[in-house]
Amino acid sequence: MYLKSGLSLIILSGATSMTSSFTCRPNAANGRINVPSKRQNAYSTKPIVSSDISTNRHVCLDPFTKSRGGVTEAPRDGKAILNTIANLTASFWAAGGFVAILAKSIKRILPLAIEPFTAAAPALSRFQMLSYITMCLGFAYAEGYKGFQLKFSPMVVARSQTLKPFQGTPIHHVLFGPFYAMGLFHATKKRQIVSWSITTGVALIVAMVKKFPYPWRNIIDAGVIVGLSWGGISILGIWMRTALLGKDSRTDPCLPKGMGDR
């Protein structure tokens, strides 16, 4: 009995001690409700008061949301993600398909370009070797750098970026993406004239060069390979920079006025 009475007194004393630390009476100075202060230690000397506790619901954000410019954005839905994937695929098909056309041409004439360096072919004279090197450097600058990298390649990538299969782009624009990217159709009148003139001119030059004797045909083919290789690499580089890194080249896609990408 004495043990039970002593235990009851201990429990009652502990409860009284705990409840005495709280009060439901507002502070007359600031109207706040007092909360127990945090025990001071070597790392904290300032007690926590109710004003230090943030109740802003934007402090803890959903890890799947994005914050841009101080505005919380909802996660993208499945349809938007599928559209992004489809647009990226169509763009790569257009730009990459044109690069594949260039690669096929390079593969076809590469044996002729390296023929002078094979054991079965007559060795090049000093003048012919100098012509070989000069032709490669000339095509690298005129065709590869000025023609492709500065003008044609950015336009091909810009036009490929306008292909949006599920957002209004006609299906034949997507199917013939490489030719669409070249500006052979659905482009401004000037762009179509330039693209068709270049395509026709290149075909005529190739037919004419085939009649050249050894080693001059081989020398010209070597220069063409350098120019086309430079062009293909520049297209892939600009496409990755634009489509994957999001850096807009601000190149005019030469679309018909008032028609957008349709």
Strands, total number: 2
User: In angstroms, what is the radius of gyration?
Assistant: 37 Å
Secondary structure: helix percent = 55-70%
Output mean pLDDT. 79
Give the distance, in angstroms, between the N- and C-terminal Cα atoms: 95 Å
Contiguous uncertain segments of 5+ residues: 1-7, 9-33, 35-44, 48-72
Largest sheet, strands/sense/barrel? 2 strands, antiparallel
Q: Note the overall shape.
A: elongated
Order of helices and strands: HEEHHHHHH
Strands ordered across the widest β-sheet: 1-2
Structural class: mainly alpha
Question: How many DSSP helices?
Answer: 7
How much of the sequence lies in strands comes to under 5%
Summarize the structure.
The protein is 57% helix and 2% strand. The protein is built from 7 helices and 2 strands. Helix 2 packs antiparallel against helix 7 (216-244) and helix 3 packs parallel to helix 7.
